[in-house]
């Protein structure tokens, strides 16, 4: 495995298993961040209209001289942009900011009650029209997915959720696996809130790695697409240096045991929509 290793979505599109998240990185900083990540070999960039940095992401990709089709780019429709017509318009705004002809993966950012089904119909249209290569959701729990698929023509290809050792989301992961929906982890390092955990440190010392690298390796080995955020080139390099060691089954289980169902972000059912 390496930074260019991919997994296949259920429609046949390949997505790199490791990428760069750019949550709320300011415009100029995001340009530098994406530029350095691409230089290190990253080929998967995850942004969103809510992050207010799509222009910087698009410019960095354009200026990199790497062919557009060699880079996988995700963006998302925000809560106040949802609804059928609103989503189609929001997508065009994102496309214009990115200065792309298409987006690789377009996600519904949160399951806005009473809106996400209409939003999904818009995503299906964008997919059928060839403006996006794949469509999916973010922060959807099994009951949201069940509800969505009652009326959907196309099943989501990915579900991006908060996922890290203190929040392993086993039920949602199992549901997605059963329905061939790939799981992506946002905030895979738990915002570095518990890197002093003794289990993580014991495993890190054994492999001569950092606790952060152990967490990212755990994600990758657990078949979770992971997109750690970093604006620092050295940290980006360190984050990506997780393909030269392997956790044992026992170590994976030990990391699983850190789970306390603790969220950093909001619960999808209690979000102030």
Automatic annotation (TrEMBL):
Pfam families: Aldo_ket_red. Keywords: NADP, Oxidoreductase. The record marks 76 as: Lowers pKa of active site Tyr. Residues 24-259 form the NADP-dependent oxidoreductase domain. InterPro entries: AKR, AKR5G, Aldo/ket_reductase_CS, NAD(P)_OxRdtase_dom_sf, NADP_OxRdtase_dom. It comes from the Bacteria. GO terms for molecular function: oxidoreductase activity, acting on the CH-OH group of donors, NAD or NADP as acceptor. Substrate binds at residue 109. The keyword Ubl conjugation does not apply. The active site is at residue 51. Belongs to the aldo/keto reductase family. This is Aldo/keto reductase. It comes from Terrihalobacillus insolitus. The lineage of its organism: Bacteria, Bacillati, Bacillota, Bacilli, Bacillales.
């Amino acid at each position: 495995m390496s930074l260019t290793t991919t997994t296949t979505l259920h429609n046949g599109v390949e997505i790199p298993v490791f990428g760069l998240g750019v949550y709320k990185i300011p415009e100029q900083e995001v340009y530098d961040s994406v530029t350095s990540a691409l230089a290190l070999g990253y080929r998967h960039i995850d942004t969103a209209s809510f992050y207010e940095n799509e222009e910087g992401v698009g410019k960095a990709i354009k200026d990199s001289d790497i062919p557009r089709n060699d880079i996988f780019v995700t963006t998302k429709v925000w809560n106040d942009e949802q609804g059928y017509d609103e989503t189609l318009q929001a997508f065009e705004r994102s496309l214009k900011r990115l200065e792309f002809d298409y987006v690789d993966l377009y996600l519904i950012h949160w399951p806005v009650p009473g809106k996400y089904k209409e939003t999904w119909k818009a995503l299906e249209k964008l997919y059928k029209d060839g403006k996006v290569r794949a469509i999916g959701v973010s922060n959807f729990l099994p009951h949201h997915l069940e509800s969505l698929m009652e009326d959907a023509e196309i099943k989501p290809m990915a579900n991006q959720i908060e996922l890290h050792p203190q929040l392993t989301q086993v039920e949602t992961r199992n549901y997605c696996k059963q329905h061939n929906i790939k799981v992506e982890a946002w905030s895979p390092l738990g915002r570095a809130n518990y890197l002093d955990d003794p289990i993580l440190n014991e495993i890190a010392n054994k492999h001569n790695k950092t606790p952060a690298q152990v967490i990212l390796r755990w994600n990758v080995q657990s078949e979770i697409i992971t997109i750690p955020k970093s604006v620092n080139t050295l940290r980006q390099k360190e984050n990506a240096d997780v393909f030269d060691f392997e956790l044992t089954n026992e170590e994976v289980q030990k990391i699983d045991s850190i789970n306390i169902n603790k969220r950093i972000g909001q619960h999808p059912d209690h979000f102030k929509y």
